[in-house]
Design goal:
The protein is mostly helical. The protein has one domain. 69% of the residues lie in helices and 0% in strands. It is built from three helices and no strands. The longest helix is centred in the middle third of the chain and has 30 residues. The radius of gyration is 21 Å and the shape is elongated. The model has no long low-confidence stretch (mean pLDDT 95).
Length: 74
Amino acid sequence: MLAIRLAPEIEERLEALAARTGRTKTFYAREAILEHIDDLEDLYLAEQRLGEVRQNRSETISLQDVIKSYDLAD
Protein backbone atom coordinates (compact mmCIF):
# COMPACT_ATOMS: atom_id res chain seq x y z
CA MET A 1 0.00 0.00 0.00
CA LEU A 2 1.25 3.44 -0.87
CA ALA A 3 -0.16 6.74 0.30
CA ILE A 4 0.89 9.97 -1.37
CA ARG A 5 0.04 13.60 -0.88
CA LEU A 6 -0.73 15.57 -3.99
CA ALA A 7 -0.83 19.30 -4.46
CA PRO A 8 -4.46 20.47 -4.53
CA GLU A 9 -4.28 21.40 -8.22
CA ILE A 10 -3.03 17.93 -9.15
CA GLU A 11 -5.72 16.32 -7.01
CA GLU A 12 -8.35 18.44 -8.77
CA ARG A 13 -7.05 17.44 -12.20
CA LEU A 14 -7.05 13.79 -11.20
CA GLU A 15 -10.60 14.03 -9.83
CA ALA A 16 -11.82 15.76 -12.99
CA LEU A 17 -10.21 13.14 -15.21
CA ALA A 18 -11.71 10.32 -13.18
CA ALA A 19 -15.15 11.93 -13.27
CA ARG A 20 -15.00 12.49 -17.04
CA THR A 21 -13.94 8.95 -17.84
CA GLY A 22 -15.64 6.88 -15.17
CA ARG A 23 -12.30 5.48 -14.00
CA THR A 24 -10.96 5.80 -10.48
CA LYS A 25 -8.28 8.18 -9.32
CA THR A 26 -6.34 5.11 -8.23
CA PHE A 27 -6.44 3.76 -11.78
CA TYR A 28 -4.90 6.93 -13.20
CA ALA A 29 -2.35 7.27 -10.40
CA ARG A 30 -1.24 3.68 -10.98
CA GLU A 31 -1.02 4.21 -14.76
CA ALA A 32 1.02 7.39 -14.32
CA ILE A 33 3.42 5.70 -11.90
CA LEU A 34 3.89 2.66 -14.14
CA GLU A 35 4.57 4.79 -17.21
CA HIS A 36 7.02 6.98 -15.35
CA ILE A 37 8.81 3.99 -13.85
CA ASP A 38 9.21 2.55 -17.36
CA ASP A 39 10.71 5.84 -18.54
CA LEU A 40 13.06 6.04 -15.55
CA GLU A 41 14.22 2.45 -15.99
CA ASP A 42 14.97 3.16 -19.66
CA LEU A 43 16.83 6.33 -18.74
CA TYR A 44 19.00 4.67 -16.09
CA LEU A 45 19.75 1.72 -18.37
CA ALA A 46 20.79 4.10 -21.15
CA GLU A 47 23.00 6.07 -18.74
CA GLN A 48 24.61 2.86 -17.50
CA ARG A 49 25.21 1.64 -21.04
CA LEU A 50 26.69 5.00 -22.07
CA GLY A 51 29.05 4.90 -19.09
CA GLU A 52 30.19 1.40 -20.06
CA VAL A 53 30.83 2.50 -23.64
CA ARG A 54 32.74 5.60 -22.54
CA GLN A 55 34.91 3.47 -20.23
CA ASN A 56 35.56 1.01 -23.06
CA ARG A 57 33.89 -1.78 -21.08
CA SER A 58 31.35 -2.40 -23.82
CA GLU A 59 31.39 -2.30 -27.59
CA THR A 60 29.01 -0.53 -29.89
CA ILE A 61 27.42 -1.80 -33.08
CA SER A 62 27.04 0.52 -36.02
CA LEU A 63 23.63 1.09 -37.54
CA GLN A 64 24.90 -0.34 -40.82
CA ASP A 65 25.90 -3.58 -39.07
CA VAL A 66 22.50 -3.83 -37.40
CA ILE A 67 20.78 -3.33 -40.74
CA LYS A 68 22.92 -6.06 -42.30
CA SER A 69 22.47 -8.44 -39.36
CA TYR A 70 18.69 -8.23 -39.52
CA ASP A 71 18.51 -8.02 -43.32
CA LEU A 72 16.77 -4.65 -43.16
CA ALA A 73 18.37 -3.14 -46.26
CA ASP A 74 15.97 -1.84 -48.90
